Amino acid sequence: MARNTGPVCRLCRREGVKLMLKASRCETARCAMERQWRAQPPGMHAWRRRKEGEFLKRLREKQKVKRYYGVLERQFLVYVQAAEREKGNTGEALLRLLERRLDNAVYKLGFAASHPSARQVVTHGHIYVNGRRVDRPGYLVRPGDRVTVKPAGRSEKLVRAALGEGPPPVQAWLQLDPQKLEGVVVALPGRDDVQIPVEEHLIIEFCSR
Description:
Layout (H helix, E strand, L loop, with lengths): L8 H7 L38 H16 L3 H12 L5 H10 L2 H7 L6 H9 L3 E3 L2 E2 L12 E4 L3 H11 L10 E4 L4 E4 L14 H8 L2
Antiparallel strand pairs: 1-2, 1-3, 3-5, 4-5
């Protein structure tokens, strides 16, 4: 499957927000967004850029969300179509669907240090859902699902290293048992669980044009 293999710090600079694609490095002074001379869109003529129009604003919101969750264009359009079939606000439904991705749940539980790491942990078969191995990062978790780590020394060592010295703060829609390396989905994620600033109505307007 296609994926981005280029320098990911350029993606954060392009969107003007930290996408947390390099785990703990994004929280240090080494992050490109912390450097005044680099916290600009990539390219040698950034200072010449004109004022963004409405089309570009909508495009940037879509790209920001795509890059944060690590999905491709065709995958993203499938999520948009699914959100349009949901009741209520389409933009919020889209974000809820993306939050329910298995790799996002693994990241939010602290089993991986970043979204790219979580995707790798899932695809390599280290994660079980309800006792069965699931190696699809796009698998949508539901309330009642139990997300556990493969009962093997290598898998447990990998996840414990990501957890570090103590369990991370977990959002209300998840519960974590760090001793058992087990997480439970107790509810559907809400709009407030999205950790990046995003105007979802601009995304829907862009995809509906």
